[in-house]
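Notes taken during the Thursday session

The instructor put the following on the board and asked us to keep it in front of us for the whole hour. The protein is Histidinol-phosphate aminotransferase. We were told not to look anything up and to reason only from what is written here. First, the residues (372 in total):
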Amino acid sequence: MSARPEPRPGVMQIEAYVPGKSAVAGVKKIHKLSSNETPLGPSPKAIEAIRAAGHFELYPDGSAAKLREAIAAKYGLNPDRLVCGAGSDELLSLLAHAYVGPGDEGIYSQYGFLVYRIAILTAGGTPVVAPEKDYRVDVDAILAKVTDRTKIVFLTNPSNPTGTYIPFDEVKRLHAALPPHVLLVLDAAYAEYVRRNDYEAGLELVATSENVVMTRTFSKIYGLANLRLGWMVGPAHVVDAVNRIRSPFNINGPAMAAGIAAIQDEAHVAKAVEHNERWLSWLSQEIEALGLKVTPSVCNFIMIHFPQEPGRTAKDADAFLSGRGLILRRIESYGLPHALRLTVGDEEANRLVVEALRDFMGVKDFMGGKHA
Ligand SMILES: *Cc1c(COP(=O)(O)O)cnc(C)c1O
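Then, after some discussion, the predicted structure tokens were revealed:
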């Protein structure tokens, strides 16, 4: 007998998720480029909807009916197949809890989102990591990890923190080769940003399969990260299981109202996509021109690789940039100690980052500062 309460086995194995930094001691003006938030903010209509939501004394609609209807209308889905969550993080965790237990295995990709690992361990299961090739998800490597104990496979597409994606054909190939008892979770948090003909988030695959679900979020392109709002779509039996274990009022009224307004403001989303396309390629080109390797990204962030020589490492760069109020994300917790992740910011932040990296790398600016 213990002298004090002890968490159940596995809990103390979990390394708590460490969010991106949001402040630097001694630096007043900061640009937070560490959490893939949108520089455009949410739709003004979403802010208006929160103001109008009112009645904080009343419990919210636990079924999130109006929000599910708005999402269903936008994507041509059946609202009964949707579950909303306090961020897609909550849904990822609920899926692990519903389908994984002690003795079971959950697979995710080498540089996959750390939340999967936490969710699998919290549910009492065993995380199994499939290696990636050149920072890209490797479908064959995932399939090689499947055993009789596999219950769930988490696939981020496109991926965070690498920014890479796999074509939809590859997703279909993965699904076709998985045993039917394995739940395939497609985490499409950055789907709205992708501009590639061979990419599909996979809504049709969800609609035509008994073992595929997709999670989406309002935290990224919709700019509502603070409100904690996400949704999933899946087969009726999975929706039923998740609804049994989620807390009854898991999302709040103002968040639901904002989500409805945000998803209907297509002009705002288009603006965000346009901004991202322009600055994603500008940042990638400018930073490569400084002699740093950038992994090609289809998201709203890029992974920058730094040399391993003293004074020029990712850690040194992080300290240098932080001193100028530019907060990027160290990703050593993903096994990427020599890279930093940079979120596409507003024009001012983007230009400051390139300027700072130029100084950090000691590159002479022969263009006389005339860049784009
Ligand atoms: C940001 C992100 C999410 C979204 O998380 P929320 O809980 O909805 O804020 C999900 N998956 C990945 C890979 C992400 O990067």
